[in-house]
Amino acid sequence: MNKYLLLVTIAFIASLSACKKEATGNKSIIDTIKINDTIKVNVNELDRPINLKASKGLYGNRIIVTWTPIPKAKNYRLFKFDDTKQDYQLLKESADTSYTDLATVTPLTKVFYKVMVYNSNIEYSKFSDIDYGYTTGQAYSRNLFFGSPGSGQGQFVYPNYVEVDKDDNIYVADLENGKIQKFDKTGKFLELFFAGIRSARGLAFLKNGNAVVTQLTLSDNYVKIIDKQKNVVASWGSFGTGNGKFQNIEGITVDDDQNIYIVDGINNVVQKFDQTGKFLLKFTATIQAPNQAHGPYPFGICYYNNKIFVTSPYNSIIRIYDKNGKFLNSLDAGTTTEGIKARNNYLYIACAGFILKTDEKGEIREKIGVGQFSSLISGLTVNSEDEIIVTEVYEQKIISYKHL
């Protein structure tokens, strides 16, 4: 082969190689485009779920996950991140757009979720955005918080007692302001329900809707029963130590027979009356515990299961009596106690720094609101929705806790 022919042959081979590289490059680009187009035009792909929300600290032992319903979606798959496997695992397949995750998790630990539409293996969506939730590890959380210092509407100086009526309206007796204010279940002021001459005390409601209110005064009866029109239908009591007399009224309660029990702190007795004010009996309320600096002094009282429970702010012993005043036994709350209420087989007790939920034997115990109070919690009641309402006296606040 001569020199000229060799150069031509080399040039021709080189040109073929260049054409092949360029064609390969073009083919790769086209293939990529075809793949993307195939994904975009998949007619079986549905809109992905939106507004995925996981509850953040709203519940003590569960996380609730919700999302917006998607048109054409018949079914959803919810995934949860597994820390052990470091991947999302299928948690639930359902047509619902909410899920309650009751799996045990460490409180205040983030748990991540994502969801997709999944009608079939050829009809599904991309995943939603990811959201996380967490639990508090607590069964109760603050639900309501109202009040401020002062003597006006919705203001308090020393709110020592609280009660609810059958409609869950809230009544707060202010020892220093000498009045009882009425609020609806959201804390909205409704009216000045009762104005005492000196000092408003405990209150309770009879089955007929009449209210039993108590006060300390030198010029009026200590106990009044008021009907729905604010008429006084019964009235009795004055200062002293005899039957029907009081030195310092504290808590009151009503039994199934509509008899009224009234605590006298200084006299250390509970007096029992019928709803006309007729004196029935009285009995010693508390004892002085060992190493107790102060003498015996009762405060809170409630009726439950044919028994009367009496607390003391000076010791941890809750004394239990029958309806005739016979001492039955006692339970130890572990700390000083103030207001007490019974509802649905549980006792709720205002203690030093928390609310104790227990049974009548004190065998089941749950502490509510630990570390959340900065002053004395005194009055306590429970409404029809099992929300616990307490007075934080020195903060001049009314606080309620709901079960999560």
TrEMBL record:
Keyword Glycosyltransferase: no
NHL repeats mapped onto the chain: 145-186, 237-276
UniProt entry keywords in alphabetical sequence: Repeat, Signal
First and last residue of the signal peptide: 1-20
Gene3D superfamilies cross-referenced by the UniProt entry: Immunoglobulins, TolB, C-terminal domain
Protein origin, superkingdom: Bacteria
The name this protein goes by in its record: Sugar lactone lactonase YvrE
